[in-house]
Amino acid sequence: MNRPAKISDKTWWIGVNDRTTDLFEALWPLPNGISYNSYLLDDDKVAVIDGVKSDFYPHYIENIKRIIGSGKTVDYMIVNHVEPDHSGAVEMMLQAFPDMTVVGNSKTIQYLSQFYGDIPKSLEVKDGDTLDLGSHKLTFALIPMVHWPETMVTYDNNTGCLFSCDAFGSFGALDGGLFDDQLDLESYRGETYRYFSNIVGKYSTFVEKALAKIQDLGIELTMVCPSHGPVYRKNPAYIVDFYRDMACQRTDPAALVVYGSMYGNTARLAEAVAKGLREGGLLDVVVRNSSKTETSELVRDAWRCRGLILVGCSYNGGVFPKIAHFMGTLEGKKMANRFIGVCGSYTWSKGAAMKPMRVFADQPCWTKVGPEIEVLSRPSESDLDQGSELGRNMAHMILSSNGCSSQS
Ligand SMILES: Cc1cc2nc3c(=O)[nH]c(=O)nc-3n(C[C@H](O)[C@H](O)[C@H](O)COP(=O)(O)O)c2cc1C
Ligand SMILES: [Fe+2]
Ligand SMILES: [Fe+2]
């Protein structure tokens, strides 16, 4: 996808695919790229909804000109979210269309001026305010903290399109199609999970509030138009339900075993735990070496799985750094309703690995499953038996819980 596509009455997708950026937010790998979806309403007044990252401005303005030609101007730029992957081109847009009015709530306008200086013409909107473009009437709904304080969504009352910005978004560029009925949604599922759990997951309670608010608008949702990933017209409920499930911490009956081991001894314990999980009747068992699997993938799997087992060797007086990093990344995610087990190893300083893992697992968001196993250098037969016992216990807990929770 690189040319504008008409998606509804007077409504165009004018986004771009980014297949060059290595790390989104300089943190999260983009193996399949990402799209910055922007939309244009070519009504009596012309409005663009959300923008693109500044690097892509030349392509973006070309898309705009393709639709409105050189005789028309952009009257409004609606900024649902100020993060620069969407607002980066605001300055250049203001240069191209000096009479353009930037539309946002009070926080939007404040943040935009912090990044880009004075915004000459702005229109401040509040929750429920509307904007008439001619035959299209837009309504704004504020959904704070999904995932910045100023975030809002824009709804077109005429077409039923919801322009939801990061909400309902996904990693993964648009491979040849734009809509859910043109793409293999299954191939985006993992990337939607990874996007949600790493970018938005921490704010799950706010996502739930946002979902309730959108429902309260009483609108007929014909199309969900996020700012990243597929646009949903065949089945908008697919992505709304998917986000609701992730936000309310609905998990799969599955376990993730993440281990850190330099010379394979501690890894043996992880294998024993995995064997026990299977013996306990669990079919969905994921074992990952923390040195080989990138952290955002581990976070995604941890978000999906009802059980997590950390297995770490000691390293310089603490736990293996990759496990420490993973725990640190999960720390702020406000995960709930999951089971955890920990085991580790040491050669000379008993407790070096176990202590930080224990502190992590003792947080109220986890339900701890035993036994805890601490191995001296190389696991004995009895250690391995205990590892399998932990796996079986975890499988039992996972399978006897329905894994459905809502934080709100
Ligand atoms: C660089 C390095 C640092 C280590 N630091 C500790 C430590 O602080 N305390 C300890 O008991 N063992 C320490 N160990 C030993 C390991 O925790 C572990 O027992 C050993 O690597 C064998 O386990 P593995 O095969 O799973 O890597 C260290 C090992 C290495 C290579
Ligand atoms: Fe964002
Ligand atoms: Fe974004």
Keywords:
elongated; Rubredoxin-O_OxRdtase; binds flavin mononucleotide; seven-stranded mixed sheet; 25% strand; metal ion binding; binds fe (ii) ion; 408 residues; FMN binding; alpha/beta; Metallo-beta-lactamase, Chain A; Rossmann fold; 2 domains
Word description of this protein:
InterPro entries: Flavodoxin/NO_synth (IPR008254), Flavodoxin_CS (IPR001226), Flavoprotein-like_sf (IPR029039), Metallo-B-lactamas (IPR001279), ODP_dom (IPR045761), RibonucZ/Hydroxyglut_hydro (IPR036866), Rubredoxin-O_OxRdtase (IPR016440). Residues 255-395 form the Flavodoxin-like domain. The chain is α/β, with parallel strands linked by helices. It folds into 2 domains: 5-247, Ribonuclease Z/Hydroxyacylglutathione hydrolase-like (Metallo-beta-lactamase, Chain A, 4-Layer Sandwich); 255-396, Flavodoxin domain (Rossmann fold, 3-Layer(aba) Sandwich), CATH 3.40.50.360. The protein has helices spanning 57-68, 84-87, 90-96, 106-116, 185-200, 204-216, 236-247, 265-279, 295-304, 321-331, 354-361, 381-399; strands at 5-8, 11-13, 16-18, 23-24, 28-29, 34-36, 39-42, 46-49, 76-78, 101-104, 122-124, 130-132, 137-142, 152-156, 161-165, 223-226, 252-260, 284-289, 305-315, 318-319, 338-346, 366-368, 373-376. Helix 5 crosses helix 9 (295-304), helix 6 runs antiparallel to helix 7 and helix 8 (265-279) packs across helix 12 (381-399). One fe (ii) ion (FE2) binds at residues 81, 83, 147, 166.
